[in-house]
Amino acid sequence: MAPRYLKKPTASTSSAANTTSEKVTGIVSGVIDDIRARGDTAVREYSEKFDKWSPPSFRLSQADIDACMAKVSPQTIADIKQAQANVRKFAEVQRECIKDVEIEIQPGVFLGHKNNPISTAGAYIPGGRYPLLASAHMTILTAKVAGVPNVIACTPPIMGEIPNATVAAAHLAGADEIFILGGTQAVAAMAIGTETIKKVDFLAGPGNAFVAEAKRQLFGEIGIDLLAGPTEVLIVADNKANPFTVATDLLSQAEHGPDSPAILITTSEEVARKSMSYIDAILPNMQTGELAGKSWGDWGEVAVVDSMDEAYSLADEYCSEHVQIFTETPRDALVKMVNYGALFLGENTCVSYGDKCIGTNHVLPTRKAGRYTGGLWVGKYLKTQTYQEVRSEKASGELGRLCGRCARAENFEGHARSGDLRAQRYMGDNFEWIGQAGGK
Fold it and tell me: Which CATH number goes with the domain that contains 142?
């Protein structure tokens, strides 16, 4: 049966939105080109233009960091440390499961791979509407657990001030350098390298439309974590789900921005209608209610289905960034679903835990990218690099014969001759071309 929608999104892609996107693309391209040409001079000009920020140095000294730390409350410092301990513990378990391997695939032929960390990584920690301290945990600390020796952090000023708590989080996470620099100019400076900012090999972290577009344009020149869109949340609920909890958790993610989809799929029309009623009741007294309300109004959806199998199937089609399972047997989702950024099982578990403190990484795929990739984790900071060694002359000769046949089937004569040479040397085969070239 087709789902019955009690609410559908009212927003749609428009020519105005496309025009805005084109403007962002053009602005970002111009900034990148300018920074590529003029380095630090251009970075400073754009920081002045966009953030009204032009300190003697964008890079914080140790004394600057110490001063920031001193301005953060002891409770906040303790909370940062506890959240980072959770992130570190889970990241360490992930790192331990990634093994170097070597196998003797046939006598005298050894194949293997090593997992080498990226040399230099950049971490972008957003400011703006929300100073995302947790992004420091997710990007910097995860890189350090992976073994990245150099991690550069950039975060924008907020209202012309250094964001002390964000600096504290970046420092405690292990950042080797911290720059108070935001937007496209920060991403471009890290990706390209300037006189004072080291070029990175990989860049991670969320950001606004300009940051996302800069990462998109620079991808290839550097690696990136993923191309993230607006935050998404989807709740799968049965008839036992608590509608007030459903409403609260949908709005917890809708407040991220004006275009954050918040979706409810349930087998109970009663749960659906009560949840919608609670959303209407909560929004007027919610500090971020105007923003969350716009997101819910424009992008919110509520679908009623006839069975849990239909609910899971529909949820897989949405492939949401965050999927909460409010059912009597939430672990069923581990079997029933494959398309998502992260699962949050049971009403004791909320997306906000993942966003802030539980220990899993909150940099997750959006816009259905969960069909082909997962989120940020230690493995993203590692290069799995293969090697091979043929110790046996006989094995080399046999591989030479096989290589010659395989290569000529593809019309790669040069490849074939590399194999021929070993087949002659170790197996006594004769090849006319070797004699003609005077080879041995």
Answer: 3.40.50.1980
